[in-house]
Amino acid sequence: MTFEKKKSGEKIRVLFIFGTRPEAVKMAPLYLALREDARFEPLLCVTAQHRQMLDTVLEIFGISPDYDLDIMKAAQTLSYITTAVLTGVETVLKTCRPDIVLVHGDTTTTFASALSAFYQQVPVGHVEAGLRSFDMSSPFPEELNRRLVAPMASVHFSPTPANRENLLAERIAAPIFVTGNTAIDALSYTVRNDYAFKTSAVRGLFPTDRCILLLTAHRRENLGTPMRQIFAAVRQVAEEFPDVQVVYPVHLNPAVREPAHEMLDGLQNVLLCDPLDVDDMHNLMERAYLVLTDSGGLQEEAPALGRPVLVLRTETERPEAVRAGTVKMAGVETERIYALTKELLTDAPAYAGMARAVNPYGDGHACARIRQALLYLFGCGEKPVDFQPEP
Q: Where is each UDP-N-acetylglucosamine 2-epimerase domain found (predicted)?
């Protein structure tokens, strides 16, 4: 689909669509960047694939949606989310008639929104395009979602040169801009030296001389035995290193909460708490010594804050951080997770090597590059210079 050139003084109407907390965190700074520019008319549609966690992000960034599909319901399935978003977004598109729809990453909201826009012949811009794990089963269904959006998108905003190469290998013909990741931009809104934690249990940990070990584990493919193996490793570390304080914001899924409490309750240096708001989470990450996670976003955010990451997965769609040395793949086996964690707690040179590694995901100017790319596509500005990670 082509981009209609704008006349002088004519605004570019951009419809943002997202529905989950990770999308909101990464799209909020881009929405704000366009809202501050008189050449744009940004609009926001939220699907509320996740309701409460999405709303807290909107509140933190001071954003109100123009359209709210409010689709979340108990025991929702992927099929339900897909159809609800597909039909709901169709109505929004017919109402607001945007020049372009922006979607993010790999959620079911992203896939269904892109498909709905494609059906309505509205150009789709894919933010965080080109990440690949090359394993359709992990992350599931995110790997498939990303691949399905790619041929429908009219423009791709890839965080890294490697992401662009993935798209070119798939013979994607639409324009590709290398921008860095907007996740890095988001940190400038949330991380502060004088930050006061809202969650009392976390606030009560500071000041502390203990090493904070931040844990997140929730991915669908880790449920069951892998999750229990992760918790066994964390328990072993906590028992062996009493000067380490583990903080685990536990996902609301009962399949996560039940084994977490069964295996980690009763340890004096393990705090199990409810999920944290994004500003609490970012500031806790900034104060952490080490991050253990099966999340994708934390693999980008923690290195930007100089925090080493052990990835609790067998694969990653973000291999740049592994090559840069900011991240190590720990897998899901107890022995390896324990050994790598112990190494970073006891081997100062090994820790320093990861903490000082270059972050390949961005320099905090991804939103500015995407904004300039949109101006260029609609005939209102020069082509932006691609982001180049430090060697």
A: 33-374
CB atoms within 10 A of CB 34: 21
Q: Which domain holds residue 370?
A: 12-181+362-378
Instruction: Judge contact between 19 and 109, C-beta under 8 A.
Output: yes
Per-residue pLDDT at 359: 81
Whether 221 and 176 map to the same domain: the answer is no
Pair (176, 224) in one structural domain: no
Backbone angles phi, psi at 204, to 5 degrees: -70, -10
Which of 205, 351, 182, 350 minimizes the C-alpha distance to 284?
205
Same domain, 174 and 294: no
Same domain assignment for residues 144 and 216: no
Q: How far is CA 49 from CA 15, 24, 91, 104, in A?
A: 17, 11, 17, 14
**Residues 47, 48, 50, 52: what is their CA dihedral angle, to the nearest 10 degrees?**
160
63: CATH: 3.40.50.2000
Beta bridge partners of 16: 44, 102
Dump pLDDT digits (tens) for 82-133. 999 999 999 999 999 999 999 999 999 999 999 999 999 999 999 999 999 9
DSSP E strands in 111-194: the ranges are 124-127, 155-158, 176-178
Size of the chain in residues: 391
Q: What is the pTM of this model?
A: 0.91
345 and 231 in a common domain: yes
Is 113 within a domain? yes
Q: Is the pLDDT of residue 156 over 80?
A: yes
Q: Are residues 251 and 156 in the same domain?
A: no
- Strand partners of residue 290: 213
Q: How many domains does the chain have?
A: 2
CB 237 within 8 A of CB 342: yes
- Domain contains 53: yes
Phi, psi of 311 (to 5 degrees): -90, 125
Q: What positions carry a catalytic annotation?
A: 106, 128, 142, 218, 220, 251
91 shares its domain with 226: no
State how far the Cα of 17 lies from the Cα of 90, in Å rounded to an integer: 12
Share of the chain above pLDDT 70, in %: 99
